[in-house]
Sequence to fold (488 residues):
Amino acid sequence: MGRKIPVWQCILVLLVMTGLLVWAITKDSAGEAHIGLILAAIFAGVVAVANGWKWSFLEAGILAAINRSMQACLILAVVGAMLAAWMAGGTIPTMMYYGIKVIAPGVFLFTACLLCSIVSLATGSSWSTAGSMGIALIGVGTALGFPTAMTAGAVVSGAYFGDKMSPLSDTTNLAPAVAGSNLFDHIRHMIWTTGPSLVIALIAYLVLGIKHSAATEVDIGTINEILGFIESASTINLLYLIPPVFVIAAVALKLPALPSLMGGVLIAIPFMLMNGTEITSVMDILNNGITLGEVPEDASLMMQKLGALLNGKGLQGMMWTVSLILCAMCFGGIVDCTGIMGSVAGGMLKLAKGTRGGLVVVTVFTAIVVNAICCDQYLAIILPGRMYKEAFEDMKLKPKNLSRCLEDSGTITSNFFPWNTCGATMRSFLGVGSAYIPYAILNWLNPLISIFYGFTGISMEKMIDEEYARILEMRAAEKEAALKGMEG
Fold:
């Protein structure tokens, strides 16, 4: 290990990374951030080596970060194959067809957010929700005349509500573990911030949906044309909804995510054959994807958009996103293992100035910055949790206050950054850029409500003297054990 990297050099690394990403995304017409992240990792590595850090240690840090992201990469690959199977097997066309027929335009955004909230609460997974229900809702919204970004915002809001509140979610279990809180105390405490965020978001989506549908009259003839196009591109059959029902049920029953998604692929294969796929083409479709139907060149813009949505990427279609995650982990691994991010977070703690509101602001802001810099929502929970645990305790704030702050920021904002694992995944699943962020109302409102509670003291429960005394005893015992370990 090398010496502690000066704070000014840590800040310089973050500024260089920000500058490279801005340059890469704005100057490249395709918004490619890959090379910007690699160059930022090289710069961070040079700074670390100049401060005495050995390359072997930096490489171990990179590999550790990549290892943390491998489940995400595997899920992306499987979901790519699953989407191709569901498209070829008529599952997604059937979901779109009945969604267009059943959901009224005025309540569409409200319904989209509510449906995704229910599914994600049952499964504990924003990814499974966006990768199944979300994709179908994007198609329904397009047919009803809603901008893709608007629909994606409602989907993401609902998906992250359940990801944050479900006891099945990994982040919902990680945050109290880091903060020293109890899982169900943590979930009950989050109702204070996440509950109002969801209610406000649903009201906003209802108003937004009514206004948009009133301003954009949906032509019945166009709707019938779209329904006819879907019917011509794929057979519509309620049996085709079995694969998503299986995946949702499997995850809700606490089966591991990867086997559940793989099951979603395998169950869809018979429906692919029923829908006219040749058995010799199944593997090719799962690997390379499929596009259903051909949109006439003189078709309306809405029809062209819908035609673009009737495609399943396949496993290979997800490799762009997987490579982006790997590039991001190269940078994130270096800034984590060398303490660069920790130094910046430690400097932020001084800005809190010993006030409860200041501490909440710093915790929320640090989690957002870690999401942007380390490109990983788990680090956005773990790093601020480690950094600020004692500060919360010394203010006699119960651990569930810290665990709530970590989720109100680390979990909920992870999808805002295209190079973060969650951001890359949401954009890949929903086929949308960053334009959806203003419409992801729950995601940006939740941290603001958390900060408001920090300053006002609403729901910020304090420890009694006996609880604080026990924590001081535990700290002393841990230090004594550490000293004995060093002596040994």
